[in-house]
From TrEMBL, chains A, B, C, D:
Protein's organism: Callosobruchus maculatus (Southern cowpea weevil)
Catalytic machinery residues: K180
Start and end residues of each 3-hydroxyisobutyrate dehydrogenase-like NAD-binding domain: 174-300
Family label: Belongs to the HIBADH-related family. 3-hydroxyisobutyrate dehydrogenase subfamily.
Reaction catalyzed: 3-hydroxy-2-methylpropanoate + NAD(+) = 2-methyl-3-oxopropanoate + NADH + H(+)
Protein name: 3-hydroxyisobutyrate dehydrogenase
Record key words, sorted: Branched-chain amino acid catabolism, NAD, Oxidoreductase
UniProt record, GO biological process: L-valine catabolic process
InterPro entries to which the protein is assigned, alphabetical: 3-OH-isobutyrate_DH-rel_CS (IPR002204), 6-PGluconate_DH-like_C_sf (IPR008927), 6PGD_dom2 (IPR013328), 6PGDH_NADP-bd (IPR006115), HIBADH (IPR011548), HIBADH-like_NADP-bd (IPR029154), HIBADH-related (IPR015815), NAD(P)-bd_dom_sf (IPR036291)
Pathway(s) this gene product operates in, as recorded in its UniProt entry: Amino-acid degradation; L-valine degradation
Molecular functions per Gene Ontology: 3-hydroxyisobutyrate dehydrogenase activity; NAD binding; NADP binding
Recorded GO CC terms: mitochondrion
Length: 305, 305, 305, 305
């Protein structure tokens, strides 16, 4: 983890934030509440107006003008690329030495391409995807995984720590994405494994709370069992206890698995469980579970009552 | 977890222990070092003679005679059944109100059958499989998962705590096995997922220690990443850092997965990742990895250099 | 394939047939229509009475008495064993040199055990499971896969050919079951693969008939594409064109896969696709597709409209 | 299938063929032996010079100049795109109304993009991937799956039939690729299933020839069992009987599965067996089997002796 550095009280007016979806809006709220003034843009005007205390702009370019830090938090790599490099892209609109921080989850190779182009145009670029989900964004406890130059990561770290509690510098450009995908790959697999196990135990007559308490002090324990248990009623305040609403949608974990498979393919790394897990989530999507939290695998395996 | 009960200082001479393999021998050592006198039997005479301070017997029956607690720690359910009920089985040789504690990992249904027959013959029976492996057996830190009557579990608990640190009462006969299989099912899956992820990350240029440290504070963390990391050199004192020697053999996790699949089948619980994980371990066995620690999946996915 | 032998016009009254389910009833109809007189038994009285021209008996023993050939066509190995060897089992009730022919699909090891016990009791035993399904049973075009003594197989062959068109002698006792399971393992996998492919093609805009016609002259062709196509409307007179009614039920193919996995496990043969296919069919069962034809995987992958 | 049309005896000098690898060289040989004069180009000069009776050119542009039909048979979509549209691409170098026929296996979406660009530049474009492999290319018995305009397909059909025996018009641009990927997806899965089954049967004591002969008249039959059997010695003249040399390389089927998964992903079609099959082939690649025929899965499952 990076060492703490003293914060330089820079003028907060030079932060731009593009993309105020479920994650971005919550991240901006934390920036604002901790003293940053932020210029924002979202293609959906209501999204931008949902956050208090920001300056709403009419284009990414307008938001980014004069900013030192330009954050993007967007659905996929094509949109990030278009926002930065498109006909009305930010890089064409501003000329100063801005630092771009892309917190979207995109292909590592796309991050590397963007970093290269940014550099050729006199800009600096970090990939800085997050883990922690909507809950972590709301609470300001996200983990940032950062790829790029060390000094750039140091410079933006105080701002990141207003939105999260951990900042990991992973290596060169793209490594933030790689770390994110590696983590979510395990998560996707472990959640299904946990669902299979708990479903089996319950169908064989075990109480899911008791079974969970055993697993959580044994070799089967993981974040999926001890923090985000998939069985309704075992833990409060997790999506499984709220009809699998909110949380980390099936379509989002499936998206990350597709990215992981492409990255693994480029490196010749086999992903047998990753691949079949991906297809299981795709099967859930085909059967109407797209917007449910990914722990809904439990309900799917449980079957009709 | 069971409440602590006062220990009744019973005569230590009435403990019998059948089966002194990798696990059993270490469990008996802890019993002896904590004041129990134990009569032992193993089909391999050298196995029994490897433990100091015990009385070596020539048959299970001889060991069990006069014992209050008769432990079995044997390779599979058929051997347990034969030991208890065969022509020279213990149940035919002794007449007192002994309590049988089977710590082998066997099919839940076999435990239930044994429990039923024991009861019909005036004996009491607990299934009490363990987690923690050879390391936990050596250190006396095993977890016991116990199925059967509560009062029987209470009675033997002080003895169990000389070999382990956790005792979970799971429910009726067989539920100890169910809990064990549920735990190991997750373990088997999560380990492969962790290997896939770390192999991918390393092949994409990440340092495995750094990647592990990120995962361990993120949603991908599990016992397989934070306690038993599969990448050589990331953690000391785990099999992966010792050429995958010792530890939990591929053939043993494969055995547990076969038991889990049978149990799941009987309950109509699908195990997609469990089943494919089982076959991946079987593929490793076919390719010569049978006796290696199960984290050797990492080496297998990594491929030839 | 066995050479044709001349048929000895034995007295048809000495054929017994135990088990008149979907398959058995149709097989008996063919025996009767081709001149055999058959004594039958089924635990469900209506089942026996559904077939014309037979002698209905009150017990397996009554049916088997005086029979030269005793056929069993039963749901699983336990029932076969009980029918032959149980308290009221046939082998206890008759004393002549009957030839038992078990056409049930059961574990190869169970067949071997039954064959051994039969021999010890002075009887002869063949395992003779079939392929061809209800359609083949109705049409008298089943394939018999026979394990046991060559001379026994020759003796019963003329009778088998009244119910089927192919008789394969596979080897010693149990090899009929092995061949059956090997065949159905491929079938189970290939059907899912064909469903995945055709679903993908259709979703990408291809006409399923055209796509099928291409596959059927290419390297992807199989019985699942050219004879039993899973897409509604591509072929007439197959279950997929009749709402997946009739045919080979999901629960039956799942049963065969469980048997195949046990057999493979005993031989150390990995079944990665077999295992995951098994679990996919189990997932269908959990979601209400148990009684549909196994080609319904297509509908499942297609998802909700 | 397209109706036969009368062949118009066009001047054979206007055929160009770019890419003379294992497939392309054999296809050109057939064109030449059946009267076409062909101008060829390959980035590896020796490749071009291996074929007798052709005009070897120094660039794709030189080969394509004046050609009516310009064939490309190249390793992937990026190379096809570069060949047609790159700085020295053919479309910049020639101005007539050439018909491009791309027989490479590439992403359907890439074909659609190429088709669109070709049209915008006044050219016509067909995707026409083949099945049949090196053997089919050598024998002139390939199957062409053609996407694009019907009249263009008719125009080139007589030339295609000099290299193959079947020409299927599949639909609009890209549908040739879709049909190809659908076929190879089934092939990849069925081959593994067949290997699992035959390995299991052999390990259980069956003769592989006998087992194959049973499967080939039963519901498990497929091209993988009856034409390209994976067990050494069962069939002559297939790679499995020649140490898995030649044939369809593991790396090539893996490539096709990656393309299929991307296409399926775009359409929301789950590919559970396709995905795990892909990863099994990737595991073989990681373990040194990259250049062996894909039926080598049999040897891999068989394990060390």
């Amino acid at each position: 983890m990076l060492q703490e550095v003293s914060y330089d009280h820079r003028n907060a007016s030079n932060v731009a934030f593009i993309g105020l979806g479920q994650m971005g809006a919550r991240m901006v709220k934390n920036l604002v509440s901790k003293g940053e003034k932020v210029k924002v843009f979202d293609v959906v005007p209501q999204a931008a107006s949902s956050v208090q205390g920001v300056t709403i702009c009419n284009s990414p370019e307008e938001a980014a003008k004069d900013a030192c830090f330009v954050f993007t938090m967007l659905p996929n790599g094509h949109i990030v690329k278009d926002t930065l490099l498109g006909d009305k892209g930010i890089m064409k609109g501003i000329s100063n030495n801005a630092l771009f921080i892309d917190s979207s989850t995109i292909e590592p190779q796309q991050s590397q391409e963007l970093g290269k182009i940014a550099k050729e145009n006199g800009f600096r670029f970090l990939d800085a995807p997050v883990s922690g989900g909507v809950t972590g964004a709301e609470a300001g406890t996200l983990t940032f995984m950062v790829g790029g130059e060390d000094k750039d990561a140091e410079e933006v770290k105080p701002v990141l720590l207003k939105m999260g509690k951990n900042v990991f510098k992973c290596g060169g450009t793209g490594t933030g994405q790689i770390a994110k995908l590696c983590n979510n790959l395990i998560l996707a697999i472990t959640m299904i494994g946990t669902c299979e196990s708990l479903n089996m135990g319950v169908k064989l007559g075990m109480d899911p709370k008791l079974l969970t308490s055993i697993i959580n002090v044994s070799t089967g324990r993981s974040w999926s069992s001890d923090t985000y248990n998939p069985v309704p009623g075992v833990m409060p305040n997790v999506p499984s206890s709220n009809q699998y609403k909110g949380g980390f949608g099936v379509s989002l974990i499936a998206k990350d698995l597709a990215l992981a498979e492409n990255a693994a393919l480029s490196a010749g790394a086999p992903l047998p469980l990753g691949a079949i897990s991906h297809q299981l989530y795709r099967t859930l999507i085909a059967n109407g579970y797209s917007d449910k939290d990914f722990a809904v695998v439990y309900e799917f395996l449980q079957g009709k009552k």
